[in-house]
Write the structure tokens for this entry.
Amino acid sequence: MARHNLRTVIGFELGRNLSKPRFWIITLVIPIALMVVFALVLLSNTSTSATTDAQKNAHISFSYRDRSGVVDAALAAELGGTPTADPAAAIAAVKAGRSQAFFDYPADPSQHAVKVYGQDRDVFANGVYGSVAQSLLQLSAQQKLDSPKLVQLAGGGASSVTVTYRDGRETAGFNGLIAPILYLVAFYLLIILLGNQMLASTLEEKENRVTEMILTTINPTSLILGKIISLFALGLVQMVVFALPLVAAYALFRTQLNIPTLDLSHLALDPQQMIVGALILIGGFALFTGTLVAIGAIMPTAKDAGPIFGILLVLIFIPFYIMTLVVSDPTAPIVELFTWFPYSAPVTALLRNAFGTLPLWQGVALAVELLALAAIVLRIAVQLFRYGSIEYGRRVSLRGALTRRRGAATQPSAETAAR
Amino acid sequence: MTSDPIVEIDHFRMDFGSTTVIQDLSFEVRRGETFGFLGSNGSGKTTTLRALLGIYRPTSGRLLIDGTPFDPDSALRLGYLPEERGLYKKESVIDVMSYFGRLKGLDKREARRWSMEYLERVEIADKARTRVDKLSGGEQQKVQLGVTIMNQPELLILDEPTKGFDPVNRRLLMDIIDEQRASGATVLMVTHQMEEVERLCDRIILLKDGAARAYGTVTEVQEEFGGLTIILDYAGALPESADYGIVSQGGGRAILSVDNGADLAGILRALIDAGMTVTRFEPRRRSLDDIFVEVYGDEAGE
């Protein structure tokens, strides 16, 4: 019966959420916003690229003075340039409209800027003068190097491959960071997107005064577990919806959007990191869910519960203030504190796990800590719901609700005592 | 009805902090009977029901349903209409009813079928797909009632069932209670409507100051509180007498109270001998309403 009811609760909660326009509006806002941004970036990139190309290829006539000796006269002539020894006359010609532009190359262009004078076209079109001046200098410099290899190296075309070792074993480097950091992203998405729903999950019974009906129909543990599982499933639906535009953008517009190539063949999946990360994610999610459900059982309305949810949110963002220490000095006392304090532990530990600075024993111990605490908090949440949510319209005393199960040592509300 | 109890409450005590709501309460409800649980406001009736249903844990004592503490996962079919009523508001009527039906062990199709039949019976079938919060108060009461009885309950617990019901829904409720009784359900009801109690209940308990003030069949309780009342229509002067007390008089009618076993013929003869013209002399058992007023009258002004 309990298992049947668990399935019934999950089905009901999923059905009612997935059929609500509000759920889809919230879920689709982010992907639609992403798609709009992608579209704008795409349009902007196309326009920028076209403008740059046009500027590079633009043919203008200009005069120039070269004190550096780098500029190749033949190349300059090809681009429409005429050398001059009288910059003042050249500038005057530009001012008078007899010449389009004048470039004054300093003795050391690597130290001093090239001065460019031109007739005004418009803010964007004026960029053509600088582009031509720089192109001329760059091409001339490359011609002075007679080796294509040197040209490439001078252009910063050298690449390097780094191999690092820890405890005698080769480490995965950046490629090893990607997969475990996804746990952190998942944790944030789950808490931020579902936090309010977790909070409201038990408040609804209370606000609608369904508590007595429901408590005499279903075991509260089944009810709350069903709600949590359905929330988790809703979170997965939301994450898939969020991921769709990213995947589509990567597959269809990777070049236009300047998305770096993700070479999955180099993606390193360290089983230890992945397992520890999964356990910490599950433990952290369960702990935060249990806590939010417990808060929902205590508070009379969602509005009253809001500030406490705010505190929990702060706790999951605080570890980012010590991000540098988390990465560079994971044994610093503040990092250790954040690693072991239950409500900052998921973020700190998932970060450390991704950067490979969380020893296995600590990862396992943390997972145990989070899961054990989550079990305790969930049990308290069930207890609070069972014995506290009957206090319609008022905040429940934590001590009162927990002791009432043993026959009560605290004062009930006037409403309760009067019955 | 059998003597086999379905509800057993044994030396139940309930404290909230320094306040003792129930001192020492023991009673049982027999399988198949309709049992009235009576008491003034604040006498602990709802607390007792909540403790019986596991919503509160008792300070001491045993509260059993079908021989064990209540467990929603047990096989017992329970229908409970609480005093504080509510339903999921944002879902449609049929979805809410089906959900409760499934939680009560019906399969999805059966839950929907039963719900539609019930909605047709109470004439709101056209509202099946309407959100609950769009229904009128009376329509929500009908839905709530349907949820309460949708699993053919063996035990029906009704906490002030007619509270807030309009006369039409009250009639509907009474018909449904009658049907449930006829089909063998045990009914435990809290009510302040004494006429309902007299009409429906086999046995009752009166709760006062956290303990049972009276317990038994309606007749036994009436007899325990003594006596009879005589409705007297007359002309002339009503003399005082040690054989009866005058509860009220005026407009040619008086209500007299007499002890059990009083010589009614002797009283009538004495009245006639005193020169009165008696047109009505109707002895009656004291009504539960009178008894209720006598037991709780001192609390009315509190």
